[in-house]
């Protein structure tokens, strides 16, 4: 079996035996997905880069205990979510004084630029971002990371029924927000 067709689970088995090449293969296959997921969770590309790398260090450490009850990609996203939440909690604990805050340049768009950027996709993204965290996360995993309801439940550690309920309310809120903003349900 060559590296391109070797399954993720087989690669995790190789990692568990200390095979660094297997870690590199898993990194090449899954880094972009993990990075995008963490970037969405944290809102920071720099934090996402650090956390995504930590996920693969964790893979190296935890490979011997991987039981294969979920897909490797789901397992990695679960690790990523835990690390992202931990980093966000730590970030909230960090303190910035008023003088430092005043030195941060205002990168906000002008009203003209904001208006120019308005289209349905951008509006939808804003509405997703405005959702409560529990709804935003299921939408992000489902639509931006292609996870199934079962996989989302595994990543978040919640029952499938809860995922479905959150998905229902998230879609309802998004539909209401789009309608209130004057967008019809069709595309574009």
Automatic annotation (TrEMBL):
Record key words, sorted: Sigma factor, Transcription, Transcription regulation
A biological process term (GO) from this entry: DNA-templated transcription initiation
Keyword set includes NADP: no
Superkingdom, taxonomy of origin: Bacteria
Coiled coil start-end: none
Keyword Membrane: no
All copies of domain RNA polymerase sigma-70 region, residue ranges: 26-92
Name of the protein in question: RNA polymerase sigma factor
């Amino acid at each position: 079996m060559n590296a391109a067709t070797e399954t993720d689970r087989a690669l995790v088995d190789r990692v568990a035996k200390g095979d660094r090449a297997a870690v590199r293969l898993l990194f090449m296959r899954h880094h972009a997905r993990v990075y995008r997921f963490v970037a969405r969770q944290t809102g920071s590309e720099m934090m996402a880069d650090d956390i995504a790398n930590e996920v693969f260090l964790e893979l190296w450490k935890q490979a011997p205990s991987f039981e294969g009850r979920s897909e490797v990609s789901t397992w990695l996203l679960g690790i990523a979510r835990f690390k992202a939440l931990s980093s966000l909690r730590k970030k909230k604990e960090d303190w910035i004084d008023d003088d430092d805050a005043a030195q941060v340049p205002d990168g906000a768009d002008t009203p003209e630029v904001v208006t120019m950027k308005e289209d349905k996709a951008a509006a939808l993204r804003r509405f997703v971002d405005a959702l409560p965290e529990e709804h935003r996360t299921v939408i992000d995993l489902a639509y931006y990371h292609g996870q199934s309801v079962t996989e989302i439940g595994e990543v978040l550690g919640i029952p499938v029924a809860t995922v479905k309920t959150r998905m229902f309310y998230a879609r309802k809120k998004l539909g209401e927000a789009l309608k209130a903003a004057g967008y019809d349900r069709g595309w574009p």
